[in-house]
Amino acid sequence: MEEKGIPKTMISRRDSSRITFALGTSIIALLISLVSFWRFPSSTSHPSTTTGILENIDRTGAINVGYGIYPPYSQEDPISKQVSGFSVDIIKEIAKELGVKVVWHRINWNTMSADLQRGEFDVIADPIFQTIPRARELAFTEPYAYFGTGIAIIRKGDHRFTNFDSLDLSGIVVAAGQGSAEETLAKNRLVKPQIVSVSTANDLLQPFNDVISGRADVAIADRADAKRFLQEHPSTVQALWLDHPPAVVPAGFALRFSDREGAEFLTVCLRNLKSMGIIDALQKKYHLSQALQ
Fold it and tell me: Which of 20, 81, 170, 265 is the most buried (most CB within 10 A)?
């Protein structure tokens, strides 16, 4: 229908212009949306197993980080679920410098390696002990902590043991965390005892409970865990060789084995934070010495 006073051809041209303008605007909006999604995707996106931490930071806008409960390196408020600790603060400092978010993923200690390889997260923030078996399946940063290990927890009043080699007795049971550095140490140096691998999926102190319950004569652990358990049960157990650990193990962040580039990047970050005095300040905040933990 022709509008009054306006030729039909002019109406067609006007409508055509409107259609062209609307189509062009829609195309531009679509392109902007696609570019925005590619550059700034949701920070809750899961990392990709085919890329490393750097690529996934660019893709998701976040660092996907696994953590266990390993005070004072990682802690979780039971009510708010807020994550804190020495290792947590290091990651937060790195994220602040990069201008990205941190997405935290609670890990299962027994499946942490498989979960990492599967892409549940890109890096484990807790100080993961750098052992020879783990070096075959994980990429590590340079160590940011060294731990005394091979500490023995025994029941109060047990006077059978004088040094680590004295644990090599027939008829005793030695408990150690499944897949831990302490389990490797015990199996390499002790021949006569029965060595029991204890699941520590959600509780790293579980091997010590075997001593209290009588299922084991000795539990072997690192110095930090042994001190923590001793403080909780001072009248029940005692710790051997706290001041002179039988062995020392380095620990750092762990990434997928293929992500050597990411491990080197985080190593540079650790060196920078150390040189700026931030690592030292965090050690004081969490009452950590610069010597063995």
Answer: 265
What percent of the chain stands above pLDDT 90? 71
- Among 245, 218, 23, smallest CA distance to 149 is for 245
User: 154-192, pLDDT tens digit by residue?
Assistant: 999 999 999 999 999 999 999 999 888 899 999 999 999
Structure tokens at 55: 């690529």
Distance CA 259, CA 265 (A): 10
Q: Return the amino acid letter for 287.
A: H
Q: Parallel, antiparallel, or unpaired: how do β-strands 145-155 and 218-222 relate? A: antiparallel
Asked if 234 contacts 214 with a C-beta cutoff of 8 angstroms, the reply is: no
49-69 residues labelled b (16+ CB within 10 A) or e (exposed): eebbbebbbeebbbbbbbbbb
**How far is CA 83 from each of CA 79, 102, 262, rounded to the nearest angstrom?**
11, 11, 23
Question: How far, in Å, are 145, 198, 288 from residue 167 at the CA level?
Answer: 27, 18, 30
Query: DSSP characters for 113-128?
Result: HHHHHTTS-SEEEEEE
For residue 231, what are the contacts with CB-CB under 8 A and spacing of at least 6?
none
pTM for this structure? 0.72
